[in-house]
Amino acid sequence: MKVLVVSESLPPVLNGQGLVLYRLLSEKRPDEYCLASQTNWLKGDRRQRGQLPGPYYHLERPKQLNRGYRLGLSYVREAINMPLIVSQLARQLVDIINRERCDVVLGCTGDVADLPAVLSASRRTGVPFFAYLFDHYVYREWRYPVRRWWARYFVRKLMRAATGVITPNETLCDDLRERFGVEASLIHNSLDISCYTANGRPATTADDGIKIVYTGDVYEAHYDAFRNLTNAIESLNRPEIKLHIYTDRSLEELATYGIKGPIVRHAQRSPDEMPRIQMEADVLFLPLAFNSPYPDLVRTSATTKLGEYLAARRPVIVHAPADSFPVTYFRQHECGVVVDRLDPSLLASQISRLLDDATLRERLASRAWEQARQDFDIAMARAKFWDLLTGAVAGRTS
Predict the structure, then answer these.
(1) Is the pLDDT assigned to residue 278 strictly greater than 60?
(2) What's the whole-number mean pLDDT along residues 174-184?
(3) Domain boundaries, position 222
């Protein structure tokens, strides 16, 4: 069996979607998959760290209308452009499917045109189509009203026509079931948890102080949660407590969003370094914004850090809206401290409680590791993923 994977993000890009695809595909032979994207992730001929050995296809940017910005015609222009874009992408995907003799095609959320183009190519070639919704197809189009309209137009067709739908969390599964009657397959954003067991927890010293650690980008989906955290830390009057952020955002940029105070900023590190960094933390911080431009996207999203934090076996504080997936998950499995209100005094009290109660920390760390092994082990995720695809191909040929 051979699968064509179509995604806006592909390895070697280090964002969550690229990492998950790398983990799912890296154990397969190069002749069992191929990859396609509108972004050219392989610039030049040299192989890059994190690049998969299978063939990559760079989809040519579709031609579209560029006039119509004046007199309120931009909506008309974009309404015409979308069918043109989908048609041109679909033609390229049909060529790849035929050239590579693919048996199934997997479309991932990203550019709004990608999934409908994959569906069109699937229908024209007769191969099964799977939709991998790393986030909600409609909610992610919050910036552009016309693209959001097209997403709403396409989504029911996509959900009805897909051989299968894959999602990374239970909240998104529930949303799709309620809105579209779709029973999606759940595959958490998983990782190689053995990376967190090789050497045990690295040693720390008193000179390190107390480290509340966050690893990843900081943007609209986090701002007020971070402001609340820095205010909470300052209110404790304990100078040994610092927030350590591993991100490419500078301190100056963070400060423009009110995120300042007892912060130690580190450059973003490679995925190989993350286990050590996360295991050295006294507390791991998992935030989501309470007041963001896209509350429904926040509610249904699943960060790849969640599984990593569980595997690190360190206490986790989840500071996010009550209806968001991380809050639901951590509360259900009792594997972290949850603060689901934007209240600095409440957050400060929970930080103190966690730091002062060694028994609580050990219990939470033990529960976290149990959930990491149960839900986030890449070996299980990989097996489920390939079973879904091979089952569809077998059903088509039987």
Answers:
(1) yes
(2) 95
(3) 193-375
